[in-house]
Structure formats: structure tokens, C-alpha cells
Design goal:
Length: 264
């Protein structure tokens, strides 16, 4: 009987201790979820720029009003280089050394420094960010205080995955079209152009202040710089395609289009 009484006392004590532990856990703040570098790997684009691009479908005009900023993080061996660019004349290449939590829930910072040598604490910089996980546990959107082009000002960034071009192509010209003669034209999101007379890979120019038009490029080994260019513009819901050339290091489009395409 005595042993049963002791066992009962131990059980009561254990239950009481468990209840006390649960009560304490509920009153204490939850520990922040840890964020790993692999969860941030990919391309992040400034949301304000992307939203404006999707409306105008004209990258050069959009870049003049809202400077584009893209942040790319990609693992290479044991390091995680981070590239920040405005698509034109500037780019910053460094390495993410660590991800550290901030004092507030959902607040973190990237520890950034040179990738080719050991660094002291005085050499590192911090890119602060905050965000909430989606239903799958990842991040679709982050607020970032980008350092190079935004000078630490907070802005929304959208996750594009591992490639930039497909999202840009879909926003600008990807789709199927008919010309005035009934010919079929297509620009794929993956960067392939299918015209009535030829097929080629294309790349949209995103930021070129010197050009007098929007344009995309194709490889052509017959020309001096290895690139063939076509201009384009959206008018009245139709896509106009122009011949373009390089003159005094600037892209110039013909005044009149050679094709007027209607989306299908």
C-alpha cells in the first residue's frame, strides 16, 4: 500500500510540474523561427518596379520613373554570393556570411562581406529584412533595407525563383500574336521567338537610358557586336515591332514598325 501511495504522489507531482511548465511556456515569448540562407536563395526584385512594369510593359520607361533593383543570392560551393544590380551600369558582388535574427519577431539581417578572404567585424555590413512565411513554409515577399541602390531604405521585394527572364518576358511581350496578313508570331516566357520566317532566342533590354526605344536582342554572329536588335512598343493593345540598329553606341529604332501584332 505504501509503495502505491508513493507512486500516486509521484504521479500527482509530475502532473503538477507538467502543468506548471506549460503555463510558463505560454507566458514566455515564442522563440523566433530561424531562417537559413538556402531559404533565401534565388532572385528578389523590387515590387514597386515589377508592378509598374506589368502595367506599362515598357522596361526603359519604367526604369526612368522607378529605378529597378534586383538582389540575387546563389550558392557556389560553400559560399553564398549576393549580387545587387540596377540592370545597367552598376552591380555589387559580395557574399552572405550569415543570417542573424533581430530583436523583433520576423526581423532578421544578412551579414555581408567580401567572399575571398577572412573579414573582421568592422568590415561587414548588414542588410535588414523582415517577412512572414507562406503556407508552404517559404517566403514569397520580403521587406528589405537594400544598401547599394536604396541606401538602407525599406522596400518590398518579390521572389522570382532562380530565373529573372521568364517573369519579365511574361510581363512584357510573351504570348501568341497574329500579324496583318494572318501570320502567327509567338514570344515564349522562356525566351524563344517564333516568327513566320525564323526562330531565335531573344532577351529583353531592361535599362538603357541612351536608347530611343524599347528593344530586345538576338544573337547574330554576322554583325560586328554579335547582336541583332528589334524595337517594340505597345499601342492600342497591339504590339508594334521595329527594325533597330546600333548608331554611335546607342540603339536607334526605325520610325515605322514593320509588323503590327494582335494578341491572341
Amino acid at each position: 500500500m505504501q509503495s502505491k501511495s508513493k507512486a500516486l504522489l509521484y504521479l500527482i507531482a509530475a502532473v503538477a510540474l507538467l502543468a506548471c511548465s506549460l503555463s510558463i511556456a505560454q507566458t514566455q515569448p515564442r522563440r523566433q523561427d530561424r531562417v537559413y540562407l538556402r531559404e533565401l536563395e534565388g532572385i528578389w526584385i523590387k515590387a514597386q518596379y515589377l508592378e509598374a512594369l506589368e502595367k506599362s510593359r515598357m522596361p526603359h520607361q519604367t526604369a526612368k520613373k522607378i529605378p529597378p533593383v534586383v538582389i540575387g543570392i546563389q550558392r557556389q560551393g560553400r559560399s553564398y554570393p549576393i549580387v545587387t544590380t540596377n540592370f545597367f551600369d552598376k552591380a555589387s558582388v559580395q557574399a552572405v556570411l550569415d543570417v542573424e535574427p533581430g530583436k523583433e519577431p520576423g526581423l532578421y539581417r544578412l551579414v555581408i562581406g567580401p567572399d575571398d578572404r577572412p573579414v573582421s567585424s568592422a568590415e561587414v555590413k548588414y542588410l535588414w529584412f523582415r517577412g512572414e512565411r507562406n503556407a508552404q513554409g517559404g517566403f514569397d515577399r520580403l521587406m528589405m533595407a537594400e544598401l547599394v541602390f536604396s541606401k538602407g531604405k525599406w522596400a518590398d521585394y518579390v521572389f522570382l525563383g532562380k530565373e529573372l527572364a521568364p517573369r519579365v518576358n511574361r510581363a512584357v511581350i510573351a504570348g501568341k500574336y497574329k500579324d496583318e496578313k494572318g501570320g502567327t508570331w509567338e514570344f515564349s516566357a522562356g525566351g524563344e521567338a517564333y516568327w513566320p520566317d525564323k526562330t531565335f532566342a531573344y532577351e529583353i533590354s531592361l535599362n538603357d537610358p541612351a536608347a530611343n526605344c524599347e528593344y530586345f536582342e538576338a544573337e547574330d554572329l554576322k554583325v560586328p557586336d554579335g547582336k541583332l536588335r528589334y524595337g517594340y512598343a505597345w499601342r492600342g493593345g497591339k504590339l508594334l515591332v521595329y527594325r533597330a540598329r546600333l548608331a554611335n553606341k546607342s540603339v536607334r529604332c526605325d520610325p515605322r514598325p514593320f509588323a503590327t501584332l494582335t494578341p491572341q
